[in-house]
Specification:
Length: 407
């Protein structure tokens, strides 16, 4: 157990795996722990152990994390149904109580209801008269409501009720916090009024060495000047909240408008097979490709660096890291307008946005970019400049300093 002085307890919505009696964690989360350890004497992570994961791909043993001797990891039970949550509640709260009592700084990520140990940790800390910070990168009840729209009958009613209960729990956890750290303006604008002290922060796991270089920007400009087809990319799960149906509809409209382009969507999800089959039947599979998961981080960044536009159709209020990663790669972000992407490019540019769910307006925006070579070049240069503002070292140091100052 870590000593209490200058120690940080974090509860995060990341999944742990267990292999050969060793805890494994995805590589980005491992990088996050490394950065927390640069800013605190010791760190304890409590996160859900997912028994459904059976692959080491993209995961790393926590034993390999730098400063491992100053890190503790506590698995929490996988409890995303009412029955499993109630069955595990008492013993999990007992563990959380003991961790709260043995750490100086407390920071909990929240979201949802069943299995949301972070929100319940907030309530336990408040009950023990401990100050804590709360963190989130999405408006969870907004996402649950979107899921409800795709359900029928009793399931639809259940999801609507779950959204209301989740909203009430998350709001209560935030109101009792001493510090709110909200990733992106979508979350900040939704939640900041619920407590006295809050900040819009960012979350990224790429160091400055991954930023697009001046030489790479020049190569990209040369490619645009050569008159090659427009290269469009999106990276994320193929699920309703990411708007894949709208995205495909935009691409279909670009084909109808005679715009030469190639589009790729990297990611997996419930809708992937259905949408891929639809594209194939409509004869668009040579132009639009859903390429599945790309787990190699450098390969993914190279795809972004080679692309002209990062087109997104996000349906909910969230702050996905992929938009920052695109800017870091000099890939302009173009999609549905919410406060988060608008803020990302507010200083230097590198993005264009339209009203949410307006497929026609987004199509027209991309057609205008495709036909205006100087605009394409300008957006690439601006995106690279906006991306230079973000690195993992900077954002984790900022959050650490806020926690130390206000807790």
């Amino acid at each position: 157990m870590c000593s209490i002085e200058k120690s940080l307890l974090i509860i995060l919505p990341v999944f742990l795996q267990e292999w050969d009696k060793t805890i494994w964690l995805d590589e980005q989360a491992c990088n996050g722990l490394r950065l927390w350890l640069e800013n605190f004497e010791s760190v304890t992570l409590a996160a859900v152990l997912n028994p459904r994961l059976h692959s080491k791909e993209g995961y790393k043993s926590v034993e390999l994390i730098e400063r491992r001797s100053r890190l503790d990891v506590f698995p929490l039970p996988y409890s995303y149904t009412p029955l499993s949550f109630m069955r595990n509640y008492r013993k999990t709260v007992k563990l959380i109580d003991s961790l709260i009592g043995t750490h100086q700084y407390l920071s909990f990520a929240i979201g949802g209801f069943w299995g949301d140990w972070g929100s319940f940790a907030c309530l336990r800390a408040f009950r023990k008269k401990r100050v804590y910070s709360v963190w989130t990168d999405r408006v969870e009840h907004d996402i649950i409501l979107l899921d409800a729209q795709n359900k029928k009958g009793i399931k639809k009613i259940y999801y609507f009720l779950l959204a209301k209960v989740s909203q009430a729990l998350n709001n209560k956890a935030i109101k009792k916090a001493s510090l709110g750290l909200f990733h992106g303006n979508d979350c900040y604008n939704t939640y900041s009024s619920l407590l006295k002290t809050s900040f819009c922060v960012h979350d990224i796991h790429l160091s400055s060495k991954y930023h697009i270089t001046k030489e790479e920007v020049e190569q990209k400009v040369d490619g645009i000047n050569s008159g090659r087809p427009l290269k469009i990319l999106y990276v994320g799960r193929v699920v309703p909240m990411k708007g894949p149906e709208d995205w495909v509809e935009v691409m279909k409209n670009l084909i109808s408008a005679g715009i030469p382009f190639e589009a790729r969507w990297a990611g997996v999800g419930d809708l992937k097979d259905q949408i891929t089959e639809k594209i194939r039947k409509q004869g668009m599979d040579n132009t639009i490709k859903f390429i599945g998961m790309v787990s190699n981080r450098e390969e993914l960044l190279n795809m972004m660096k080679e692309s002209d536009l990062f087109v997104f159709c996000h349906k909910t209020q969230e702050s996905p890291r992929c938009l920052i990663e695109a800017l870091i790669s000099g890939c302009p972000i173009v999609g549905y307008r919410t406060p988060y992407p608008v803020d990302l490019v507010s200083q230097f540019g590198g993005g264009l946005f339209v009203e949410k769910n307006n497929v026609e307006e987004l199509t027209d925006c991309i057609i205008n970019i495709a036909r205006d070579r100087e605009l394409r070049i300008k957006l690439v240069q601006e995106a690279a400049q906006s991306g230079s503002l973000y690195s993992d070292t900077i954002v984790f140091k900022n959050r650490s300093e806020l926690i130390k100052k206000y807790l």
